[in-house]
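Ops channel
N.P.: pipeline sanity check, posting one input/output pair.
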């Protein structure tokens, strides 16, 4: 199918190490691409980012799927907890950072 437009875009940590304004630009571009019918698979280790941009969330731990949620399900306190041994401390940090991330990302 040479010449056909791409139907899926795979991104691995596309916003790691960039400032908040650059992240907003990436999110806006992703919104445009998905509105045009492109499917986006994004790997991210930042829970607040995932909750902000994903429609469907798959949680992986050590190469295995350990959870699957819609955005609404994952936004609830019970659903977005740690799914991998040793992740509880990181989860608590993510929860604390979520409010700050939302405040900065949505002026």
């Amino acid at each position: 199918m040479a010449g056909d437009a791409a139907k899926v875009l795979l991104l691995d940590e596309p916003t790691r190490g960039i400032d908040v304004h650059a992240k907003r630009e990436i999110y806006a571009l992703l919104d445009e691409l998905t509105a045009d019918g492109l499917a986006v698979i994004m790997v991210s280790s930042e829970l607040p980012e995932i909750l902000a941009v994903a429609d469907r969330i798959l949680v992986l731990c050590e190469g295995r799927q350990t959870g699957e949620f819609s955005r609404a399900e994952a936004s609830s306190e019970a659903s977005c907890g740690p799914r991998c041994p040793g992740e509880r401390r990181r989860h608590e940090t993510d929860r604390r950072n979520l409010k700050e991330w939302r405040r900065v990302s949505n002026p």
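N.P.: looks fine end to end. The chain has a mean pLDDT of 77.
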